[in-house]
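Notebook B, p. 112. Complex prediction, attempt 2.
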Amino acid sequence: MLRFRDYSIPRKLTLMNMMVSSTVLLLSSAGFFAYDLYNFRKRIVRDLGIQAQIIGSNSLSALAFDDPHSAEKTLSALRAAPHVLFAEIYTPDGRTFAGYRRDRNESFPSPPSITAGSAEVSQFQDGQVALVRLVAVEGKPVATIYIRSDLEAMNDLKRNFTFIVAGVFLMSLLATIWMSSVARRSIAEPIVRLAETARIVLSEKNYSVRASTIDERNEVTVLISTFNEMLAQIQERDAALGKAHDRLEQQVQQRTEQLNAANADLEAFSYSVSHDLRAPLRHIGAFSRILSEEHDAKLDPDARHLLGRIQHGVNNMSSLVDGLLRMAQVGRTKLAWVATDLNSLLKDAIADLQPECEGRQVDWNIGALSPIDCDPGLMKQVFVNLISNAIKYSRRREIARIDVGQLQQDGMSVIFVRDNGAGFDERYADKLFGVFQRLHRVDEFEGVGVGLSTVQRIIKKHGGEIWAKGEVDKGATFYFALAPKGRSFAGATKAAASGQ
Amino acid sequence: MKHPGHTDSSQCRAGGRRSCRHQCLRPRLAAVVITSLLLGLSSMQGQRAKPTEYEVKATYLYNFSRFVEWPAKVTQAQSDSFVICVLGKDPFGAALNTILSDEASSGKSVVAQQIPTVQDAVNCRVLFISSSESTRLKQILTTLGDASVLTVSELPEFTQRGGMVQFVSEGSRVRFEVNLASAEHAGLTLSSELLKVAVNVRRNARLGD
């Protein structure tokens, strides 16, 4: 059963009205009834006293001349008083002088004793009232009258009162229900409608609905109009927000397009520059080789040394241009998604890098990698670059250790390449993947600073992420994960990193 | 219209009060006795023996005065005294004086007076004519004429002969007859209460006239 405080407002109003009116009615009825009863008892005693006095007065001669028969005739007049059950006259010496009974066979209790100095005593008892009155003539007692009456009249009164109260109660209940319906129309229903509107607004996120107004001027009206006003404001702000959002979106799109265009321009530029630089570079390389091969005898040691420097520079530039070209190509090529066996891809990459391990002791730890959807050509470049880096930077270790494997993080397959080489300072980790950005000097570890940048481009093109962890002289680990197709990769980076 | 209670009490009186107390004592009666005990004076009367015939008649003589109205000239002239006279041989003995002295306690001066001749009855309110005056009755009543004196006697046919109130015996009970015409002739008003308890009320004129 619902508790009262959980009742709906209309029900509460009706119930409260009913409770108030019934309480008032019951209390006032009880008051009236008590007052009536009190009055009735007073009246019945007074009437009986009067009757006793009349009997006494009319029996004076009968008493004076000892004529009980006459007194009985007087008493028999009580037949007219239907509630009087019994009456007796006693002489001052205590004799029963005359008597009257409505029902002959009934017996009655002895009269209540009268206190000295008073002329009358009455007593309510067993649904009857008994009254004893002393009749005196010139201060001398001549008789005692004992009279008993039933309280049928009082019962009638009670019965009538009950009927009247029940009737009034019923009427007031009807009136209450009618008045409650007025109150409901004016107070409860607008609030109920308001609550319903609020529910709709909240559940449907529809701020265009409005609570229906009422033709009154009170707090409820204020509540409704304020609520509607609030809705209007929310709607307005929503619209403004939407507009701002749209504008922003548009701007972002615009900027992205501009950026993409710029990027494409830049890529096209660097591609064509690198491409166009290759031919003159090849000429310089070819001619300097011819010079050193065919005219070596004519050169003095100084010229031979300079020629060697030229050839070294050409080689450097050539690898730089190649790198740039490859990187530019990553941007230009479309991904060819193929289910790829990464294990054989990795084997090929290591085989390609075998010359770089010449004369070195490398401890390889290759774990099994699960097949994946990717562009195999580009993925091989990723492995080649990362492993080449690992070989390069572990060069100073007597035994280089290179681990490649796979681990699970947040339902994502993460592939890692770890070495025990020079490592890096994590404060500069954000520079690792920048083009031409290097954390080591060229005379320590050769390189042009394009490799990791290319790797990052490839991973991002696959919708994945790459990150690195390391410490100076304690090696570095590169992690990358490819997002399953269509799935955003945001958030995986940090989780994966913190898992290390 | 006698109910059991009444019958009981009649039998009680017939059988003698004292002996009956034990036989007929019912709770109600006992309570009445207790009630009456509280009444003081009346309780003492309750202890008294059954009154004699002349004690009753003496009481009645006084009681008549309560239900009879005398003309204003009489009450004015005798405002300070109320005299009950006995003409002829006094049958009451001390009873009349005893009863009247009881009544005197209620503040009213009532005296009994023995008068030798009817001529002495001018100051009397009530005149009891003794049975000894039987032969002189006609003369007595003629002498009184329309004097406002309530005449009472136990002589037979007293009311027929022009007397106003006549004691009659009804078993052990003392009752009375009334001649209303005689009383009215004398300017006396008998209350209906008195007539109610009278055995017989004559309304014809006095035979003595």
